[in-house]
Amino acid sequence: MSVVLGGFFWFLAVVAVAAGVAVFRVDSMARATYALALSFVSVGVMLLLFDLEYIGVITILMMVMEMAIMAIFMIMFMGMNPALMPMSMVHSKRGSMVLAGGAFVVLAGGALLVPWPARRGVPATDLTQSLGEAIMGSKMLVMLTVSPVLFATLVAALVLASPRGRYDRFGDDLRISPPRGPEQKDGQL
Amino acid sequence: MTLDAVLVVSAALFCVGLYGALSQQVVVMVMMGLELMLNGVILAVAGLWWFLAPAPDGQVLLLVVIAAMTVEMAMGFAVATLLHRSRESDMTDTATDLSG
């Protein structure tokens, strides 16, 4: 059983890394999006191998949706059908490759050379339940911190993405009354 | 399936993402690189949790990483939208106002 699991893990690992490489190798943004989604799904399934059902499923669902949104953004910004348009928009390719390769040597070397300690403790019988109990109990402060951060993100993202801010409506000194409508240009009262 | 193997795979994912984040010119592609890096982090945290200390704390850390991913995505799209609106471009090279 462990041999089968090990083989399956390596299969997923190869798919995840190959799909990750494909993100920056394929000649269209839409294909890059699908490749990234495949990489995330592979990692999500790997999480399921660690019995992390809840987090594994969340990762798969969230990332598949996220990549679908990303494809829409790409089509929107590129103003064309990105699946049909070959493109290569890179800079500092050589330097980036050297840095990434160096980082891999350091990280993989550390992973292989560090004498990892033996496992302490055993997983809970129901991992999802234990996670829920941790969130609602001893680790509630973490979630209380994450919640306002997510809310602030929502507000900040809306402010950044909004086409008309308060300076557009009330002028540079915020004193124009009544505020400008969307049809009025800058300088018009 | 060992901890070493999991960490090597996660390092590979992280470094592929690092290459993308450093080399790509389109903002959305840079975001893809960052996502790939966080993908590697998720796998590494899960592996460390499973092989070293499978207490619920590690799962909470994973949730925090996933939340960080969400924040990165939302802010990235918002900045890309702003950039596209103000400069008619989605390239990082047109957004170097703050570079030293």
Automatic annotation (TrEMBL), chain B:
<dbReference type="Pfam" id="PF00420">
    <property type="entry name" value="Oxidored_q2"/>
</dbReference>
<keyword id="KW-0472">Membrane</keyword>
<dbReference type="GO" id="GO:0005886">
    <property type="term" value="C:plasma membrane"/>
</dbReference>
<keyword id="KW-1278">Translocase</keyword>
<keyword id="KW-0874">Quinone</keyword>
<dbReference type="GO" id="GO:0048038">
    <property type="term" value="F:quinone binding"/>
</dbReference>
<feature type="transmembrane region" description="Helical">
    <location>
        <begin position="34"/>
        <end position="52"/>
    </location>
</feature>
<protein>
    <recommendedName>
        <fullName>NADH-quinone oxidoreductase subunit K</fullName>
        <ecNumber>7.1.1.-</ecNumber>
    </recommendedName>
</protein>
<keyword id="KW-1133">Transmembrane helix</keyword>
<keyword id="KW-0812">Transmembrane</keyword>
<keyword id="KW-0813">Transport</keyword>
<keyword id="KW-0560">Oxidoreductase</keyword>
<feature type="transmembrane region" description="Helical">
    <location>
        <begin position="6"/>
        <end position="22"/>
    </location>
</feature>
<comment type="similarity">
    <text>Belongs to the complex I subunit 4L family.</text>
</comment>
<dbReference type="GO" id="GO:0050136">
    <property type="term" value="F:NADH dehydrogenase (quinone) (non-electrogenic) activity"/>
</dbReference>
<dbReference type="InterPro" id="IPR039428">
    <property type="entry name" value="NUOK/Mnh_C1-like"/>
</dbReference>
<comment type="function">
    <text>NDH-1 shuttles electrons from NADH, via FMN and iron-sulfur (Fe-S) centers, to quinones in the respiratory chain. The immediate electron acceptor for the enzyme in this species is believed to be a menaquinone. Couples the redox reaction to proton translocation (for every two electrons transferred, four hydrogen ions are translocated across the cytoplasmic membrane), and thus conserves the redox energy in a proton gradient.</text>
</comment>
<dbReference type="InterPro" id="IPR001133">
    <property type="entry name" value="NADH_UbQ_OxRdtase_chain4L/K"/>
</dbReference>
<keyword id="KW-1003">Cell membrane</keyword>
<dbReference type="GO" id="GO:0042773">
    <property type="term" value="P:ATP synthesis coupled electron transport"/>
</dbReference>
<comment type="subunit">
    <text>NDH-1 is composed of 14 different subunits. Subunits NuoA, H, J, K, L, M, N constitute the membrane sector of the complex.</text>
</comment>
<keyword id="KW-0520">NAD</keyword>
<feature type="transmembrane region" description="Helical">
    <location>
        <begin position="58"/>
        <end position="83"/>
    </location>
</feature>
